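Hey everyone, long-time lurker, first post.

I ran two proteins through the pipeline my lab uses and got sequence/structure pairs for each. Pasting them in order. The first:
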Amino acid sequence: MKKIVMIEDSKVLGTALSGALKVEGIEVHWAKNGVEGVAAAKQIKPDLILLDLMLPKLSGFDVCKLLKTDNATWRIPVIIMSTLSDPESQDRAKEAGADYFIPKPYDLADTLQEIKKHLQ
């Protein structure tokens, strides 16, 4: 079974997305802030990380940089999902090491398809 760490502080979005992923047979570990997310990624070593940019305690940009510079997690693909979808934010996410960017609000079917593609 594929494992995902989802770092998302929105209860509504997190609940909807984790429910849809579980239906697809994907194990989801949900962290609600950046510090928890980094710890979960290091401990679980998931197949993929879904990361919001606007998080409490540690921004998604900083989380991505930390994960992509750590020997234990640098190979794990990171998909950013954020309302900060302007070109500057997308460039910053790429510079931090993000593998893909999905702007919010997102289409659930398209998002699930993109997640599955990155899990292969």
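...and the second, right after it:
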Amino acid sequence: MKLKDYIEEIAMREVLERPETYVNNEKSDIAIRRVIEFLTEEEGRTRLVPPDRIDARRLLRALLNVRPPGRLPADILRELDRLLWTERVEAGIVLSNDIAPISESFVYPGRHGDVLCLWQGDITRLEADAIVNAANKALLGCFSPLHACIDNCIHSAAGPQLREDCATIMAIQKQPEPAGRAKITRGYNLPAHFVLHTVGPIVQSDLTDQHREALAACYVACLDLAAEAGGVNTIAFCSISTGVYGFPADEASPIAVNTVSRWLDKNRDVFGKIIFDVYSQDDHEHYRRLFTR
């Protein structure tokens, strides 16, 4: 399925206005309680809101994780958007323009050192034009409450509109998302304007050439789609398939760098920055070795 088949249905070209942030915890606590009460009532259940703020916030995330796609009332969504955007601001937004290219950070003998970047941190804090989400074949986000996978983290930070857009896309497609493809949505309460969703290969035993080809296809599909969509100058890639999908990180990182470099060989000046975002120190080390050969 092509971008043209769903771009209007998810209103991807509509510009989102950032909500006002909450100025104190008391007001955000009220928002947390109100949204929890609505979601509990929506489920037809009775649930006490935990008095502790951290526990209440974890409950809210869990409820949103398991909630199926569907529109929220405008007033509830407005409070939730304010809460999520306040949390992004408080976490500290990282500007992609402040991330140095590897030509400045490393003695890099390879190609495109002025475009490629390496950054270690939470991808939901990055103000890039697009970030990449390692999705599952249903493309609806992770339904496991409080799961630590990047799919869950991105959907939790963006808000339920992300799942709703993905559901719209999948309803049009009428089949699971194959590995090595990509779809694009707006980022909603993420600092990033867009999210590129791609399904990486699952490695359950020995790594095969088919796994490697499927992983490379994910990077190509994301780059092709971002270029087609327009308005994307900076992209941040997560480490696709290296988490619960079992792709060895030391094998995935050279595939990522080599695939992106080959794409740039044929498509110069399309993107200003392509960021490899890693979370763990081990993953950072895999990329550092590639950039200091």
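Reply from user beta_strand_b:
Welcome! Quick read of the second one: The two ends are 40 Å apart (CA to CA). The longest strand covers residues 130-135.
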